[in-house]
Design goal:
- Helix 2 packs antiparallel against helix 3 and helix 3 packs across helix 4.
- The longest helix has 29 residues.
- A hairpin with a 2-residue loop joins strand 9 and strand 10.
- With 299 residues, the chain is an alpha/beta fold.
- It is built from 8 helices and 10 strands.
- It folds into 2 domains: 161 residues, no CATH class; 87 residues, no CATH class.
Length: 299
């Protein structure tokens, strides 16, 4: 054991870079990796990160991208992603000795040289290897942020990721945060159910349940009966359609669609297609929400 009484640095060890290091036998314990550069390391998927290992975080607060407000999901990110996003956003380089702002992405040491700033394809590879390192260490919930970061970089990678795959990733991100944000999936589920109820009340539910009609003919001593049910019909104005009774029926249809069941309710032609769409979309959103919860508590 070495005498550390003369050391005046902070208690937490900060690692600046592991570039060019063979990480197969590297173990980092209780280290601050918020500014650590991982790109260029070998066997990074075999690194062991133990104890209280700190990474950089996404910027805080609300921001504006064009005319749309943006709030970054709180997660652990690599310094390389900070550097690429700061460069892509056109942020000025941070003066030497000045602390980075928590509301902005951190600029890298080669901010003025785009060729030396890792692009999304490079950062995605680093995220992938660190995710595997966490998963091999049986820390799958801890690997969730690195999977999120990997998908983010693939979504922004215009050179190595096909356009169709980027659009698929965009939809996956929008609906459930790559299967990791349960609140987003359940919010979309609630919105889809509300829209289903409104559409059914407007055009899906008939004004009255059709009553079967029986007609018969007499042929000598024989009686022939024929029972038919008229097609559901919708008439009347909006005050007759937007009632609590119709809302209750529409809600039953929407809830049954979530669990992939048919409500058995008589519907108009438009209502039948609305129910079919909801039985496809809403169980998918429910499954994405359950998947996100499972990813956070999986052992």
């Amino acid at each position: 054991m070495l005498d550390e009484s003369l050391l005046t640095s902070p208690e937490t060890v900060r690692v600046a870079s592991v570039q060019g290091v063979d990480a197969a036998m590297l173990v980092l314990t209780d280290t601050d990796l918020s500014d650590c550069l991982f790109s260029g390391a070998f066997h990074l998927d075999q690194i062991r990160l133990e104890g209280r290992t700190g990474f950089a975080r996404t910027p805080t607060g609300w921001h504006r991208t064009g005319i749309a407000p943006v709030h970054w999901t709180r997660r652990r990110v690599l310094a390389e992603e900070h550097h690429w996003r700061a460069h892509a956003a056109g942020q000025p380089a941070l003066p030497a000795g000045e602390a980075p702002e928590p509301r902005r992405w951190r600029t890298g040491p080669y901010h003025s040289d785009p060729a030396r700033t890792p692009d999304p394809e490079d950062v995605a590879a680093v995220y992938r290897q660190l995710r595997k390192a966490f998963e091999d260490g049986k820390n799958e919930p801890g690997a969730a942020d690195f999977y999120y970061g990997e998908c983010e970089m693939r979504r922004h990678d215009t050179s190595g990721t096909p356009k169709s795959e980027r659009r698929l990733l965009w939809g996956y991100w929008l609906l459930s945060g790559y299967g990791l944000r349960a609140s987003r999936a359940f919010t979309w589920l609630l919105a889809a159910m509300s829209l289903t109820v409104l559409l059914l009340m407007a055009v899906g539910l008939p004004t009255h349940d059709p009553d079967p009609a029986t007609t018969g003919t007499v042929h000598g001593s024989r009686v022939s009966l024929n029972t038919s049910t008229p097609s559901p019909a919708l008439d009347g104005g909006w005050p007759q359609r937007m009632t609590w009774a119709r809302a209750e029926k529409a809600t039953r249809v929407a809830i049954n669609s979530v669990v992939f069941r048919s409500s058995g309710q008589n519907l108009t032609t438009a209502g039948t297609y609305i129910e079919m769409a909801s039985r496809l979309l809403e169980p998918t959103l429910l499954a994405l929400g359950v998947l996100a919860i499972r990813g956070r508590i999986k052992r």
